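Slide 14.
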Amino acid sequence: MDTIKFPWSEYSQGAITNSLVRTVYLSNENEAKLPGLIHPPANSSDQTRAELDYLLSLQNSRTKEQIDRAQYIANIGSWFNILNPADPDYNENKKQLFYIADTIGSWYNYQNFPATTQLLLNCIQDIRVTEFRLKWNFKRPRPYQLEPKLQPLTQIKSPSFVSGHTLWAYTEAYIFSEIIPEKRESFIQRADEVRWSRELLGIHYPSDNEASRIVGWYLLKYWYNNPLFVKDLNKAKQEWAEKKSLYQK
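Slide 15: predicted structure.
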């Protein structure tokens, strides 16, 4: 059982291509440390069995309302390579950069906060590259590839470890917490909901999500070693300080 890996035949071209892109803030030296910080439990381990049983329990108890919410969240997530303004997804992609912070208000968006938007786009590039390189490194099978009783609500054409949705959600929660520290709790709550949605859909083990939370924290830590990140983050902080009073009521 421990020889089972995510099958090569199911890899999407996008998953492969995104693993080949350069990072913006993350150095090669720090990136090389990431795989050693996390590791999925063995397929045959008691932990994996317990996680599969937990996913089966979610499958047996999930409500239509929960399913609708999880499927909505499944369509959230920004990408660094949607750069053409003529692309029909261009505006929505930028809008979704602020999903984790949407409790601030609809005015906190890419149009009103361009410096923050550029910071987030650069971070998203690092997050996506990190996601797919770690997936490639570990090649963990999806839960439904180990447990035939699982009926996932969608199937994903990349390995399970780590969760990309959970990685961007927590990492963005950490970034927004640096800009608006007094709202950290609400950002983390939104990231927690993204994490939950991946488990409810039957496509990620809890250990995938925990690894993503850890990697996101280390990404922020490592980014602070890069003067460009510090400069861009300070611009975002200054932008918030200068503009928040214009929109807050």
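Speaker note: The chain has a mean pLDDT of 96.
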